[in-house]
Write a structure and sequence with these properties.
- It is globular, with a radius of gyration of 17 Å.
- It contains 2 helices and 5 strands; from the N terminus they run βββββαα.
- The two termini are 20 Å apart.
- The protein is an alpha+beta fold and 112 residues long.
- The protein has one domain.
- Strands 3-4-5 form a 3-stranded antiparallel β-sheet. It has a two-stranded antiparallel ribbon with strand order 1-2.
Length: 112
């Protein structure tokens, strides 16, 4: 999960309801995106308040991505290591595909 100090502006996500663009209103979005043999469950919640010890409260966005293989295994236990690696790569592609480049830079990830 990740916290931000703003609402949807850090994401490559746009929401309209009828003729109305949803920008700074509270949002709870749950959707599924199919990618290859995987289903990615995406949850985005805005106007979240987090209390952090010694830092006070932060208002922002929480989002997460869960990636599930659709199944159809010949021998699951023989395939599990490859499936886990592939699922991890798919999840990273979807997760980072939702973020604007400047958001990724702001989060300051380190790659090992």
């Amino acid at each position: 999960m990740a916290f931000f100090n703003s609402l949807l502006e850090k994401f490559l996500v746009g929401i309209t309801v009828g003729d109305f663009e949803v920008q700074n209103q509270p949002i709870v979005l749950h959707t599924e995106i199919k990618y290859d043999d995987y289903i990615n469950i995406i949850d985005i919640k805005t106007n979240i308040i987090a209390s952090i010890k010694d830092e006070g409260e932060l208002k922002g966005v929480v989002f997460d991505v869960d990636t599930i293989h659709k199944g159809g295994y010949k021998d699951f236990w023989q395939e599990v290591d490859g499936l886990l690696e592939e699922a991890h790569m798919v999840e990273k592609k979807v997760y980072f595909g939702l973020l604007k480049p400047e958001t990724i830079d702001r989060l300051g990830p380190t790659w090992e």
